[in-house]
Design goal:
The complex is a heterodimer of chains A (about 400) and B (about 150). With about 400 residues, chain A is α+β, with helices and mostly antiparallel strands. Chain A is about 40% helix and about 15% strand. In chain A, a hairpin with a 3-residue loop joins strand 10 (about 370) and strand 11. Chain B is of the alpha+beta class and about 150 residues long. Chain B has three helices and six strands. Chain B has helices at about 10-20, 70-75, 110-130; strands spanning about 25-30, 35-40, 50-55, 65-70, 85, 90. In chain B, a hairpin with a 3-residue loop joins strand 5 and strand 6 (about 90). Mean pLDDT of chain B is about 85; it is low at about 145-153. The chains are: A alpha+beta (about 400), B alpha+beta (about 150). Chains A and B meet through helix 1, helix 11, helix 12, strand 10 and strand 12 of A and helix 3 of B.
């Protein structure tokens, strides 16, 4: 039998900590369920409107909630729940502002929503304080997109621009299900595609363990949130860019073999810059990160008018990469906690580290703790391990 | 009725057990009723590696010295919890009057795993300022302070 390399065992432990960090950051299953009930109720209310524009309305989640990559906003209590309300049967001649107004008017007719609805530039926000807010963006079908794409308002609400939230979600899910071979995986298993879609699509079912792609997206977004915590210039890389680059990297890695989940995470992050076309990468005149699921949606469009954006991306990415590469050269629980806290913030890291200490304490209390030659304290007994007998630490200080 | 109590283990028995246990691979010496055993331990996969020296003489308590790295340096400016002596650091792993350890027990099966456990909680303490390993802190004038003398029987 081949023994697992010690370095790989260490990497698995670190992945265990990262998994805990992600769990501390994402919507809990209860929050998911609660958000689902709330957004289905909003969808039903909008659908019952007598306004002609809302006659064939479908509401469904997009963004991180649909993808399973939620990360609690740093320094805020509320999670963002992004929703699309798609009005079928509406032609692009209808002004985006008119459809948006129809949705807003309908929300304001509701006794409860009228108190908690807030107008944003392109969407309506229904704010459940302390829990989450539902951001509802109007959309219509794009008659010129063969992939079932949609049109959403531009910033001025005067024109429609192309997008494809459902297509993107399908694309991401398809990739997330690919399985690069991990020789020594630790618990990061892939979850199944989301449930059937009805008129009001059922909310994604929360699964306890997520795949490496989703986890890497969550960790990268959180790292971004921490790095740009005090930034007021708005140059932080946007989530759709991070998500798209990592998903494309994952597709490249899918046929390969990695020693551990952590090695795959490192490779995904390493590949990101090479997937951006632009002056400093491929020599192309313009920056482009195309939406893989519709035509003419360039996620990096703003990079071409604001040079601070690509600079911010590459600076942040270099830091993310070095932080992830350095994780395995840190020894000492306290040192690792310090380093992870700098990368991902102290709150989720404290929770992850406490859980690891708690698992040792719990094993000790039930008399199931052992010391094993290559891995130290463990709850798994082997022929070479020694049980840790009960003791009372003593001492003056 | 007389309860049978096995005799204390000899130094040779203790030494042999230390030498044959794969969780404390190292080297040592044995002479005139006493032994020393030196080994490296990494209490968990995420932990540092520590150099340990265990000294034991028949009739006394085993002493556990952390030679490297300096725990005092790592803890600075705090004082180490659960030690007999700060620098060089002698670990206080059990309370003798509770019968956690007697000379009938193998050091390799008690003191060695407790040392790993102590170091694990030490790193957790460094990270959080909280000692999560439980235990007791005798106060000055407490009769239990005699337990603090590592030389005491």
């Amino acid at each position: 039998m081949n023994a697992v390399p010690r370095e790989t065992l260490r990497e698995s432990e670190i992945v265990g900590a990262l998994e805990q960090i992600c769990q501390a950051l994402e919507l809990t299953p209860n929050q998911h369920e609660e958000a689902r009930r709330r957004y289905e109720a909003v969808g039903a209310w909008l659908g019952q409107s007598e306004n002609r524009l809302l006659a064939q309305l479908t509401i469904y989640p997009h963004g991180s909630v649909a993808l399973g990559t939620t990360v609690k906003p740093h320094g805020r209590f509320e999670h963002d729940v992004d929703l699309v309300s798609r009005a079928a049967g509406i032609s692009p001649e209808t002004l985006p502002s008119a459809l948006k107004k129809a949705i807003g008017d309908r929300l304001k007719e509701h006794r409860r929503y009228s108190d908690i609805v807030e107008e944003k530039r392109r969407c309506w926000r229904v704010n459940y304080a302390g829990e989450f807010h539902l951001d509802i963006t109007p959309s219509i079908l794009n008659p010129r997109c063969l992939n079932g794409g949609e049109l959403v308002p531009d910033k001025e609400l005067s024109r429609w621009k192309t997008t494809n939230p459902q297509g993107y979600r399908d694309w991401f899910e398809r990739l997330a299900q690919l399985q690069p071979r991990i020789l020594f995986a630790k618990g990061m298993t892939e979850d199944r595609a989301y449930a059937d879609r009805a008129d009001v699509a059922p909310y994604p079912v929360q699964t306890p363990m997520k795949g490496v792609l989703r986890r890497t997206v969550q960790l990268s977004k959180r790292h971004r949130d921490i790095r740009f915590e005090h930034d007021t210039t708005g140059v932080a890389p946007i989530s759709i860019i991070i998500t798209t680059l990592l998903a494309r990297a994952y597709e490249i890695c899918a046929g390969k073999v990695y020693g551990s989940d952590l090695q795959l995470i490192r490779e995904l992050i390493r590949l990101m810059p090479g997937l951006i076309a632009g002056p400093a990468t491929t020599g192309d005149p313009a920056w482009t990160i195309w939406n893989p699921t519709t035509q003419a949606e360039n996620f990096a469009e703003k990079w071409n008018s604001d040079a601070a954006l690509p600079t911010a991306f590459f600076t942040w990415h270099a830091k993310l990469q070095s932080d992830v590469e350095n994780m395995t050269s840190i020894f000492g629980f306290d040192e690792l906690k310090k380093s992870l806290s700098e990368s991902f913030g102290s709150r989720p890291v404290n929770r992850a580290m406490d859980a690891m200490i708690e698992s040792v304490s719990a094993a000790r209390e039930r008399g199931g703790l052992h010391v094993s030659p290559r891995i130290g304290l463990t709850s798994t007994a082997t022929a070479a391990s020694t049980a840790v007998r009960g003791n009372t630490f003593f001492g003056a200080d | 009725m007389r309860i049978y109590r096995p005799p204390p283990l000899s130094v040779a028995q203790q030494y042999l057990a230390l030498r044959s246990n794969p969780i404390c691979v190292g080297e040592g010496q044995m002479r005139c009723g006493s032994l020393t055993w030196e080994y490296e331990v990494q209490p968990s996969l995420l932990s540092r590696t520590y150099d340990i020296r265990i000294s034991y003489s028949v009739g006394k308590k085993p002493q556990v010295l952390v030679r490297n790295p300096s725990l005092v340096e790592l803890a600075r400016p705090r004082r180490l919890p659960h030690v007999y002596q700060q620098d060089p650091t002698l670990l206080c792993l059990y309370r003798s009057t509770k019968g956690d350890w007697t000379a009938r027990m193998h050091i390799a099966k008690t003191i060695v795993p407790w040392t790993a456990l102590w170091l694990f909680f030490f790193e957790a303490w460094l990270a959080s300022n909280e000692w999560k390993g439980g235990g007791e802190h005798p106060s000055d004038g407490d009769s239990r302070r005699r337990d603090l003398d590592p030389e005491e029987r």
